[in-house]
């Protein structure tokens, strides 16, 4: 996703490869929030899409998140949607539109974007890049050229990311 949490000139970039229907990615938001709080604008957290086949709504959710970026609320949308992963799995696309309306986005434009597929290439490009760097599950993080897989366990990931960020910021 082209939306990030800070200005483009941030010294350290953390790519967070997420599936927006993944309950583990919802859990990972606590780590992302803690890292944002600790590092502020020195850490640019970039959400990248890696929809997993087992989550039938994840691909549409990634497209919806890109429309949220276009409307200026990429991260708020992703976070609100991740809080409803079970509901998304049960009810599908209506949840995407409801979340958009709840956070003040143009739900009609959202619906149009999902129908016309305007964000397909962005999602496909993220997915292809993720496969190229051997992302296999979500959440997965990339920071300072190091890939950290949270798909099996998120234990200790926040601390490891913080260590790498501290090292990179120290120069």
Q: What does this entry look like structurally?
A:
By secondary structure, the chain is α+β, with helices and mostly antiparallel strands. It is 54% helix and 13% strand. Strands 2-1-3-4 form a four-stranded mixed beta sheet. The longest helix is centred in the N-terminal third of the chain and has 17 residues, at 23-39. The two termini are 27 Å apart.
Give me the secondary-structure category. Answer: alpha+beta
Strand order of the largest sheet: 2-1-3-4
Q: What fraction, in percent, of the residue positions are helical? A: 40-55%
Beta-strand percentage range: 5-15%
Task: Specify the overall morphology.
Answer: globular
Specify Rg, calculated over alpha carbons: 15 Å
User: Could you give the count of β-strands?
Assistant: 4
The ordered H/E elements are EHEHHHHHHEEH
Distance separating the two termini: 27 Å
Largest sheet properties: 4 strands, mixed
Low-confidence stretches: none
Number of helices: 8
Mean pLDDT rating? 92
Structure at a glance:
By secondary structure, this protein is α+β, with helices and mostly antiparallel strands. It is built from 8 helices and 4 strands; from the N terminus they run βαβααααααββα. 54% of the residues lie in helices and 13% in strands.
